[in-house]
Design brief:
Elements (H helix, E strand, L loop, with lengths): L7 H20 L9 H14 L7 H28 L1 H5 L3 H6 L1 H17 L4 H30 L13 H16 L6 H27 L6 H4 L6 H16 L4 H38 L8 H18 L8 H35 L16
């Protein structure tokens, strides 16, 4: 592992060179959509939670994290360029764009945590990513009140979905990553305040999502159930993980949160299965299920986060010894394979979409109901 060919800097340069070729011939040079930070979120939580339990060589984790660092660099450059050119202001005028900024925060924070896990000698780089996440989160926090008000306005035209809960994910990611990256971790009062703020964001978002899907009839499962609704369980998974990692709130709250996550996961994924059935019947397999959209990475993130949270709570002294223990063992026995499979499928869909569309096309597929998949 200490040879020149496996030195992290050499690997990073090689991956950057290959990624530049892919970008040049497949991606084009347009600005990345706001929620593209979900790519880094999904890949990083895969490293944090699942990669160590797959029996893969250590070099695999390094390659994944270094490639994610390259992707993060491209996204950061794209967003800075868009901001300087005025395009970013246009993107975040709508609530969906504002909430999507949460993927930048969480992507930066969890990548810093993943980097520490596989390349502990790069702690300073991971810490720098966490600092970036904090700075972006403070700006994001200023944007959220107006975005929540717009989402709450029934005449405003915005239809609430799980993207609202990126406010939760971004906030809790600061705790999860900060506990590992900062010497001595975050002060417990700060961790507790952030976790409780995340619960408040979740409550507000849940009300708006239920109001849209539970009390309105102007939507169909095939076309209006959004990819990001899986964050209904993913946001609570990272909240529970923040409680376990920080110890800032009672362990019993983490257990109750895990029970909520398990129940919500069953409900949401049952709806996802039904949606897939109706979309295949309406559009066929290709356009109904295997159409790419950046919001799909949120699904990979939530799967990985469920596995990571379950792993941590199962190993904690507060682990339940009832029926939940058996369910947790089932998740831990097979969940890492499911996380890997979902990630590989999404990568294939992404590259197929780019090959089919070509580098000069927009970065979001224009196929039917492109927010679905």
């Amino acid at each position: 592992m200490n040879t020149l060919s496996t030195h992290p800097v050499i690997l990073l340069l090689l991956l950057w060179g290959m990624s530049e070729l892919v970008r040049r011939f497949l991606m084009g040079d347009g600005d990345s959509p706001v929620p593209s930070g979900g790519i880094v979120m999904a890949g990083s939580i895969f490293v944090i939670g699942a990669v160590g339990h797959l029996g893969l060589p250590g070099i695999v984790g390094r390659l994944v994290v270094l490639e994610l660092l390259v992707v993060w660099g491209y996204l950061a450059f794209s967003y800075v360029r868009s901001g300087l050119g005025g395009g970013l202001d246009e993107s975040i005028r709508q609530p969906m764009g504002v909430f999507g900024v949460g993927t930048w925060v969480a992507g930066s924070a969890v990548l810093g945590r993943a980097l520490l896990q596989v390349l502990p000698e790069w702690r300073s780089v991971g810490l720098a990513l966490w600092v970036v996440a904090v700075v972006v989160w403070l700006w994001y926090l200023r944007l959220l009140p107006a975005a929540f008000r717009a989402a709450a306005d029934p005449g405003g035209g915005y239809r609430a979905n799980g993207a609202i809960l990126l406010s939760v994910v971004s906030t809790q990611s600061l705790v999860v990553a900060g506990e590992a990256l900062l010497p001595g971790g975050l002060p417990q009062p700060v961790s507790a305040a952030l976790i409780l703020l995340g619960y408040l964001f979740y409550a507000a978002g849940l009300v708006l999502i239920l109001r849209r899907y539970g009390f309105r009839s102007d939507w169909t499962l095939a076309d209006d159930w959004d990819n990001t609704n899986c964050i209904l369980h993913g946001a609570m998974s990272i909240t529970g993980l923040a409680i376990v990692a920080s110890g800032a709130l009672p362990a019993g709250l983490a257990v109750l949160t895990w029970v909520w996550v398990a129940a919500t996961f069953v409900v949401v994924e049952a709806i996802e299965a039904a949606r897939a059935f109706f979309r295949v019947r309406a559009y066929g397999w290709r356009d109904g299920v295997f159409v790419y959209n950046p919001t799909q990475w949120s699904r990979n993130f939530t799967y990985g986060m469920l596995y990571a949270f379950t792993l941590q709570i199962h190993e904690s002294p507060s682990a339940p010894d009832s029926w939940a223990a058996g369910l947790q063992e089932a998740i831990l026995g097979y969940g890492h394979y499911a996380v890997l499979a979902a990630l590989l499928v999404e990568i294939v869909i992404f590259f197929y979409d780019r090959i089919e569309a070509g580098p000069s096309s927009p970065k979001i597929s224009g196929k039917p109901s492109q927010q679905e998949g």
